[in-house]
Amino acid sequence: MNLLLALAALSGAVAVAAGAFGAHGATGQAVEWLKTGGQYQLIHAVAALVALRLEARGPAWLFVAGGALFAGTLYLMALGLPRWLGAITPIGGALLIAGWLWLAWTGLRT
Question: How far is CA 34 from CA 25, 57, 58, 92, in A?
Answer without folding.
Answer: 10, 27, 27, 15
